[in-house]
Amino acid sequence: MAKFDLNDNSVVVIVGSGAGGGTLGNELAQKGVKVVILEAGPRIENQDFINDEWDSFTQLAWTDARTTSGTWRVAKDFSGLPAWIVKAVGGSTIHWAGASLRFDEHEFRIKSTYGNIPGANLLDWPVTLAEMEPWYAKAENKMGVTRTNGIPGLPGNNNFRVLEAGAKKLGYKTVHTGNMAINSQPRDGRGSCQQIGFCFQGCKSGAKWSTLYTEIPKGESTGNLEVRPGSMVVKIEHDASGKVTGVVYADDTGAMQSQKARIVAVAGNSIESPRLLLNSASSMFPDGLGNSSGQVGRNYMRHMTGSVYAVFEKSVHMYRGTTMAGIIRDEAPNNPKRGFVGGYEMETLSLGLPFMAAFLNPGSWGRPFTAAIDGYPRMAGMWLVGEDMPQETNRITLDPTVKDKFGQPVASVHYDDHPNDLAMRAHAYKQGAAVYDAVGATVTYPTPPYPSTHNLGSNRMSEKPRDGVVNKFGQSHDVKNLFVSDGSQFTSGAACNPTLTIVALAIRQADYIAGAMQKKEI
Amino acid sequence: MREVDRRSKHSRRIFLKGAATAVPVVAVATSLSVSIEDAWADEAGTLSPATMKTLLKVARDIYPHDVLGDSYYITAIKPWDDKAAKDASVKALISDGIARLDQNARDRHKAPYAEVPWEADRVVLLKEIEQSDFFQKVRGDLVVSLYNQKEVWPRFGYEGSSAEHGGYINRGFADIDWLPKA
């Protein structure tokens, strides 16, 4: 395995090893580019994952201090935990459910499609679906997405069967076990899904794609990729010409190190990535690195989310099998007649008993609550995930008082639901309940959003430098050897789960970076 | 469908053994004709037995599951005694919180909280202090300490860890048999 010197200024330094950073690192390594990935968390291999919700949370979750504000309910229920993401090698590809959907054509150009929505900061992406299609195809092939590349769909579990029966009774048409980056048959050296459940706790069998055991070891085997776990980047440095020259990071002993770099790519998820740029302010970049637009940290999106759980007369055992292999796509198109723009997906979801108790209706107690828990084995569940409106005031900032153990200001996450988000959520709750009522639910529970898993948009792409942080390749408008490689570059969030798009963008970005390096542009 | 065996595998004797210095306590309890049900509270070193017993009642009233015996709730609340031993502010939080609840109960029902006979009346007393730090901390702790007990899970039809059993691929992931034909 490669080991690069701290003073080697020919390397590309990538901050983060998840869907964006892990993929970019492997793709560059495959092209012969030398890469150092600095990952804040430890390296935990998949056999060490734990089929226990709280123990796994302790093992994997990013629980470093963050603060919250805004009207979203997460700020009240989980004030110190705005996001449920992973701090480990592989990032949130350890925790993700595997749903791998392409954006719809209009979702790359929401300003043109939705027009002027008061309070929203809409912008078209500087890239179109047509441009992205070949990269989506590469991502689907890399990740082994079911229902692409001749890969069969996963078998439906009990929770899916309830969803499917209700959807068909209701007249929904596009209902299946999803486009999942989970092997339905052995592929790429990994086995097929054993229906373990616990997809959110890390896939112990390795059937679900994660950069931890795909991209990263593949990159390492080229001899061009070094991954340093336990390495928390605190600052990106630059020279007098405004080019970045390397990063300062705390290593796994807590000692500060300085790694030189030819290029720095930031992929720390949409809360940490803008935090790092803001914490890298200097006399040349007083508002934060790459922030001449003032858009770093703004337009933070987290999807309109919610869940519906329903209880039936007889058993469901929704927790058995793949957590999210089930989807209804009929509400995903943009149909403003429903009273909102954009659309949403309905996807199967289950929680174990401990997390159901924690998340069903945080703060509630007494008989109404325990009656719901008593129904646990007869419960089916779905997640509602839809496009939320980018708003300039939904924003990651540096907390004025709270600092981390290295003395750096922590991220403060402000989010207000937009009226469009609220209208969409109300519609989704109603339709979700209708699906289950159609097959005899005795009661349904609208369940509020969990801490955010889809964190997006806080370093957005734009055609014009004044509108966003990076260009169509994720390259900073201000600093040409600085890139953003995670979901924070999303100009808008679309209805669907974001990982496939993050991976497709990372493959495309690797192509661009390698080309620009070869041409000595950067 | 493969149903989950919901019977309790968790006898009171095993519980007492696991919970503390089992044999002497049981022996003493028996010899003094103190009921075994109360012995656990007397083991508390920092919080008073009366406080512990009232806390048990509070826990039952916050998350009432008639299918669960007291042992699960006792397991859930016992750690407060240790926390109180280590931190005086925790001791004050619990002791003062219970004292206030008892005072409110006496004002209204002429009896301490644990002796107010009907759950509906006790829930009214809890509602009054719902926003207090005491209630919030006790409830926030209990939602984990009660529902995260592996012994509780089968009582709610939840099977817990599955990877070591080969997942559910051969154990009923798709065995639902009552749905209308699609």
UniProtKB/TrEMBL annotation, chain A:
InterPro entries given in the database record: FAD/NAD-bd_sf, GMC_OxRdtase_N, GMC_OxRtase_C
Protein family: Belongs to the GMC oxidoreductase family.
Coiled-coil regions, chain positions: none
Annotated keywords: FAD, Flavoprotein, Oxidoreductase
Protein name, UniProt field: GMC family oxidoreductase
Record GO terms (molecular function): flavin adenine dinucleotide binding; oxidoreductase activity, acting on CH-OH group of donors
Signal peptide interval: none
Nucleus listed as a keyword: no
Domain Glucose-methanol-choline oxidoreductase N-terminal: 88-304
Pfam families: GMC_oxred_C, GMC_oxred_N
Organism: Bradyrhizobium rifense
Domain Glucose-methanol-choline oxidoreductase C-terminal span(s) in chain numbering: 390-506
SUPFAM superfamilies tied to this protein: FAD-linked reductases, C-terminal domain, FAD/NAD(P)-binding domain
Lineage top rank: taxon: Bacteria
UniProtKB/TrEMBL annotation, chain B:
Top-rank lineage group of the source organism: Bacteria
InterPro entries linked to this entry: TAT_signal
UniProt-recorded name of the protein: Gluconate 2-dehydrogenase subunit 3 family protein
Protein source organism: Bradyrhizobium rifense
Lineage of source species: Bacteria, Pseudomonadati, Pseudomonadota, Alphaproteobacteria, Hyphomicrobiales
